[in-house]
Amino acid sequence: MIRRTILLGTCALALLAAFAPVTGAGAATRLTVYTALENEQLTPYKKAFEADNPGIEIDWVRDSTGVVTAKLLAEKDNPKADVVWGLAASSLMILDAQGMLMPYQPKGADALKAGFRDAKAPPAWVGMDAWMAAICFNTVEAEKRKLPKPTSWADLLKPEYKGQIVMPNPASSGTGFLAVSGWLQTMGADKAWGYMDALNNNIALYTHSGSKPCKMAASGEYAIGISIEYTGAQQKTKGAPIDVILASEGVGWEMEATAIIKGTRNADAAKALADWAASRKANEQYVNFYQVTAHPGVTKETPNYPKNAEAAMNKVNDFAWAAANRDRILADWEKRYGTKSEPKS
Amino acid sequence: MSARMAGARTLFFKPAARSSSRPVEPGERWLFGLGMGGIALFLALFVLLPLGALFLRSLYDRDGVFVGLANVVAFLETPTLVRSVVNSLSLSLLTTLITVTLAFLYAFCLTRTQMAGRGLFRLLAQIPLLAPSLLPAIALVYLFGNKGILRGLLMGETIYGPIGIVLGEVFYTFPHAVMILTVALSTSDARLYEAAEALGANAWKRFLTITLPGVRYGLISAVFVVFTLVITDFGVPKVIGGSTNMLATDVYKQVVGLQNFGMGAVVGLVLLLPAVLAFIADWYGQRRQMALLSARSVPFQPRVNPLGDRLAFLFCALVGGLLLGLLAVAGFASIVTFWPYNLTPTLANYDFAQFDAAGWSSYGNSLILAFWTALVGTVVVFTGAWLVERAPGRAAMKGLVRLMAILPLAVPGMVLGLAYIFFFNAPWNPLGGLYHSMAILVLATVAHFYTVSHLTAVTALKQLDAEFEAVSASLKVPVWTTFLRVTVPLCIPAILDIAIYFFVNAMTTVSAVVFLYAPDTKTASVAVLNMDDAGEVAGAAAMAMMIVLTSAGVRALHALLSRALQARTQAWRRR
Lengths: 345, 575
Prior knowledge:
Shape of chain B: globular
CATH class of the largest domain in chain A: Alpha Beta
Structural class of chain B: mainly alpha
Radius of gyration of chain B: 24 Å
Strand order of the largest sheet of chain B: 1-2
CATH superfamily of the largest domain in chain B: MetI-like
Number of helices of chain B: 24
Number of strands of chain A: 10
Helix content of chain A: 40-55%
Distance between the termini of chain A: 49 Å
Helix content of chain B: 55-70%
Order of helices and strands of chain A: HEHEHEHEEHEHHEHEHEEHHHH
Oligomer: heterodimer
Largest sheet of chain A: 10 strands, mixed
Radius of gyration of chain A: 22 Å
CATH class of the largest domain in chain B: Mainly Alpha
CATH topology of the largest domain in chain A: D-Maltodextrin-Binding Protein, domain 2
Shape of chain A: globular
């Protein structure tokens, strides 16, 4: 009887032991890559990279910009990520300020546009592409609700848009933050906060995801979503009755970038990914989604993508300023508009 | 979860069983001590210490500098957070009122009438248990959103806010209240009613003087359970809360949005307050509750009452139909091509890879998580409950284990998850290897759903006479033989209930795992959350439907299995 009990205990222990983290089978190095890329980008990027780098497999941890940044900061003392691929440059600068990034000069990074990499040598991060704030405007709902088509940020303050506009919460969404940071940098603090105060009156909801406002506009839940230009093009191609508008004053934008986390146990594989992410081949992947990429020679026409995107991007865009002031901006924002924000998770 | 499971909850208010007084052999004593220590260690490691880490974290600012109570002061000075307290309290109270009233009527119809289709209605009431709480919210958007089918019914009010939250939460909490009240209403002594009738009391008087007093502790229990569920749920407010903030969602905003872990920890601690209240109420109730049933009780058998039974049927059909309807709407949402402009049915939304990189693998992860949670959870919980109930001596340790076993009910999953990050990802923690593994998801889920399972096991054990152990002892049979040969077989229905409860909850839970999943352990419920968050509502609905179908399938299997087993092992329960 005692033997049976012992047996039972052993079984229980064996069960617990079976949970010990399973390391990947075979010799493949598994890279844990934190990212805020859109979901549909993950599979093609991963496939393309792994095809060129047999023996390395990517494990994605994907969430919106704020979530990924928070997660990385939370794990600061004991990092889980090997590489960050596809996170806002301003977020990477915060990590860099905390000493969490391993500077590395990827092969061929010199060929990239000068603005698309960290100024230090070797750079702590290297840019991939730019994305920007766009207005998604549902034409069917607009007709029903008799709403004129907006063409500028100023237009969005019109009283007839009250309760019709959705935008991302800058605290959790990189898109939300770049829009806010764009207004602050181009209008100046006082005018920008005044603008946001007025805009807040028309906002129905602040979402946590940057692409969700456009998808809400696409499904007619709300007529207008301040969102990502690429999501707009994608939804329109899917059949959504929307126009994708780049505001005439110029739009805030942000850069997606790659960086290696200091202390990674897979430094070689991480460097291979950093090299690949800066390559022309990688940029040819990025351009399938974003028209403005780090590589000067890579361009492509995307269906329904707004015209002249590069020209519409704000000329003044200081990532370092945005990174240094992010906390303060978000705290101010939260104090002013936090009650309207959509809760999450 | 079945009626037995709910009975566990009313047990908050039952007196402790008499302990068996039998001689203990040294070997047994050693084993009991080891087992008890193991359970205490388990609960300490996976409930108490992480919460302690959370508490400590609340005393530090975002840069890790000790600031004492500054975070608490900042909390009280932030108007939006205080507003959330008001929202959380008022909406939770309103939901509790509506749910408990509806659930009481429903349970009353189930137990005290002879209406047709009681078995079916019992099943219908359990529908919400099969789905993550995000599902009713998604369905409500399709019904009452700005492009919703029944938008007109709201008369211009928006579903994004208090209305949506309350509707969604009523759906989500209804089965819990029904189960508790069904059990409370089932355990009645027919002799009281016979006596009352013989003394000339009319139906109304019998209701007021026998039925209500008999279920008052069940009612209190239902109120606390529903209230705690609502105030700690974030799935519903997340999807449909609009700009109405709740405490549970504030935790997330503080942590994720503002990266303010100290403040997140403070809000998490505030959410623990309902638990403290429940404790006090439990303690108070335990001292007052007397056993309703004695060995001589006669089960109550409702009589046929044509008019009453018909009304009861109408009511239950209405409520059950609404529950089923909401599920059907979610099913509809999952097969529409492009809501609301292209309603052509399609299965394309079930091709999850287009919305979410993990694709179908998150569904596979959920199955693995649910399986292990059911297995580990059942073994740990049942053994633990047995030790607490039947092991001799060690009153202080038992008290501690009981306390730790009740605690998880009140800890919001997200708070537990956050606490796990602080505890298991601390560089000094030797258990750090668990972080980012499937094991930590399993352990977090077991811990999160420990209480109800524990109470179920305790209920089942309390129904067994302690004489069993005494008799075996006098026959010189070791206690573990009694455990394996007598106790476990007799408790098979409860054990199956516990296993299924763990399984289904592991399938549906979001909050317990959302901070803890790793790239290769992302679960289906998290995928629902992520997809909804990215605005891919159809994909989210489709994955939620997969969870519902799986839970329902496992439930059906469980029903068949327990019927077969019941016939074999539970014959002694029959009259």
